[in-house]
Write a structure and sequence with these properties.
Blueprint lengths: L1 E4 L11 E4 L8 E4 L4 E8 L5 E8 L6 E7 L9 E8 L6 E4 L7 E5 L2 E8 L5 E8 L6 E7 L13 E8 L18 E4 L1
Antiparallel strand pairs: 1-3, 2-4, 4-5, 6-7, 7-9, 8-10, 10-11, 12-13, 13-14
């Protein structure tokens, strides 16, 4: 990675000569990062007037981003969210999400793939994406026991349905066509 010190000369008589302390002789100083420290330059104009100046290059950590998702409870229910947590680089950070949002956190998300571009104050940027899936799809399995036919004494045993619900978020609501709201139903004829 390369950095630059962009030098602009004002109020002197061209042409100019440049003498950087690292032996570069161009107007702008290109250096390899991490080349931290002081950089001094002497500028001489056509009348041999000289001016010197210095700039300090400070170290910065590379920009990095982690995404913290909250997955939607169920498919097609917009209950997910994602927080982008940048580190390094230079604050402030800006955000551009694939859904058009420009905040650090996006909410009300369905399942799908989301991406964000995080840009720091230096203009360094990182693109990162994440797939949001639902916690898990709700499933229901049952074991049905049919009623028995009346025996020779006219006695029959009622049927039942034993329902097992899994995945999703517990405290399920059940409503049978009979109006029953219990997980299992008995006394079916």
């Amino acid at each position: 990675m390369q950095g630059i010190i962009d030098l602009t000369v004002i109020g002197a008589y061209p042409p100019f000569t440049f003498s950087w302390m690292d032996n570069q002789t161009t107007e702008d100083n290109y250096f390899s990062i991490p080349s931290v420290g002081m950089y001094s330059v002497t500028v001489t104009d056509s009348l041999l007037c000289e001016v010197s100046d210095s700039v300090e290059i400070v170290s910065t950590n590379s920009l990095a981003v982690t995404l913290n998702p909250t997955y939607p409870n169920c498919p097609h229910i917009a209950s997910g969210s994602i927080i982008a947590n940048p580190t390094g680089g230079m604050t402030p950070y800006s955000y551009q999400w694939s859904n058009g949002e420009i905040t650090q956190e996006i909410t009300g998300l369905n399942t799908g793939i989301y991406s964000v571009t995080v840009t720091d104050n230096y203009g360094c940027l990182i693109d990162i994406n994440i797939a949001l899936s639902s916690i898990s799809s709700l499933t229901a399995n049952y074991v049905a026991t049919p009623p028995t036919c009346p025996d020779s004494n006219g006695v029959s045993i009622p049927g039942s349905i034993d329902l097992t619900i899994s995945n999703g978020i517990p405290n399920y609501s059940v409503l049978w066509s009979t109006g029953s709201v219990t997980e299992d139903i008995d006394n079916l004829y």
